[in-house]
Amino acid sequence: MKFLRTLSTTRLVALVAAVLAVAGGGAAIAVAAGGGGPTPPAKPLDQAIHDSLAGAAPDGITARITFTNNLFPSGALLGNVGSALMSGASGRLWVTNDGRGRLELQSDAGDAQIGWNKDAVTVYDASSNTVYRATLPAGAQSSSSDRGAPPALTEIDSFLGRLGERATISGAQPTNVAGQAAYRVDMSPKHDGGLLGSAELAWDAANGVPLRIAIFAQGHTAPALELRATDVSYGPVAAADVAVSPPAGAKTVDLGGSSSSDHADKSGAVTGLEAVQAAAGFPVVAPDTVVGLPRKDVRLVGGQTALVAYGQGLGGVLVVERKADASSPGGGLAGSLPALSLDGVTAHELATQLGTVVEWQRGGTTYVLAGSLPPAAAESAARAFK
User: Fold this and answer.
1) CA gap 226, 240 in Å, rounded
2) Residue 330: Cβ within 10 Å count
3) Considering only CA atoms, which of 87, 82, 86, 37 is closest in space to residue 230?
4) How far apart are CA 310 and CA 294, in angstroms?
5) Over the stretch 131-166, which tens digit does the pLDDT of each residue have?
6) Beta strands at 251-257 and 130-135: parallel, antiparallel or unpaired
7) Are 183 and 39 in contact (CB under 8 A)?
8) In angstroms, rounded to a whole number, what is the distance separating the alpha carbons of residues 183 and 176?
9) pLDDT tens column, 31-84
């Protein structure tokens, strides 16, 4: 499908990030073993990718899917957090050939819909009757001259070479997904991978359409999350099938997004610890190291938020600091996540298979620390901010 062929990495990451933000913190989708049916001929990975993308693009996609969420261990969440996004579900997927799509999930915990186009993502969670909206980066759209033309083998080889510097990549493994002859590739980080164990992708050998996408946490044989097509057909998709229509009384949450003005703000951001401390208007704390990771960057974004980065890659730690809100002493995560004590300060923690988020307030500043590391390491890192 043309949209999936030309979707840039930046836009794909933005789409996934918007969905995961609603799900409560990070995730990806995983791949199970291939099913029965015909398989494509064995080919080198670059040739398999090229030939798949050179196939005729379908007019649209209609599929039945299953979504499995094993991201949150028992006790990671408190209260009523039932949702198809949190517990897993089954449902259907519709995608047009002009950049629009909708994923509909049904489960006993509550239904959810995820819709997107080239400009924005909309998520409706029926369990909370809430609509989440996010804008995709405008600068990441593909130019019209790029659309429809598959990449050359040299371009694919260059991409795989760059990826191979960071990850171990398998060859193209012939398989069958949802009755379609497909190829599968497995990847695992070479270094700085945090809790990420491996990732997998399977796509239709005839047209390059993704049929399974996956991420596994270290030490786990079951996927952290899984989105898998169980039946797929190709043909035109009606506009009504890709429209998300929440009830009139649904609450709306704007998750924001990237725009040209965002890029301007970033390029003009205040950087360096002393400069940020002088300009922030609230106490900014940034120790030289946390859990053995050196401080790499400190910057003030929008005049209200300090970002402190430690380490690099997926094994790094990011800390967001803002002026504390006196009306919300427990922080934004209070009430929904387990509490813990950080040297006398009450914090709240979201622990998942792929990483940990800790939020707390101290000395007039609210801190949110996130990293692909286990809870004990995240808590140790948080204690360094005094």
Assistant:
1) 26
2) 14
3) 37
4) 5
5) 999 888 765 444 333 446 789 999 999 999 999 999
6) parallel
7) no
8) 8
9) 334 456 899 999 999 999 999 999 998 999 999 999 888 887 655 555 545 566
Separation between Cα atoms, residue 334 and residue 336, nearest integer Å: 6
User: In the block, which residue shows the tokens 């999350």?
Assistant: 225
Q: How far apart are CA 271 and CA 293, in angstroms?
A: 19
Q: For the chain, which domains are there?
A: 2-256 (2.50.20.10), 268-382 (3.30.200)
Give the β-pairing of 339-342 and 305-310: unpaired
Beta pairing partners, 92 = 64, 104
Phi and psi at residue 362, in whole multiples of 5°? -155, 130
At 315, list the tokens: 């094994």
Task: Enter the pTM of the model.
Answer: 0.76
For the purposes of burial, counting CB atoms within 10 Å of the CB of 359, is it exposed (0-12), middle (13-18) or buried (19 or more)?
A: buried
Q: Are 186 and 199 in contact (CB under 8 A)?
A: yes
Q: How far apart are CA 379 and CA 216, in angstroms?
A: 23
Which residue's entry shows tokens 């579900």? 89
Query: Positive or negative, the Cα torsion across 54, 58, 63, 68?
Result: positive
Give residue for tokens 């270094």. Answer: 191
Count of residues making up the chain: 386
Structure tokens at 341: 């004590």
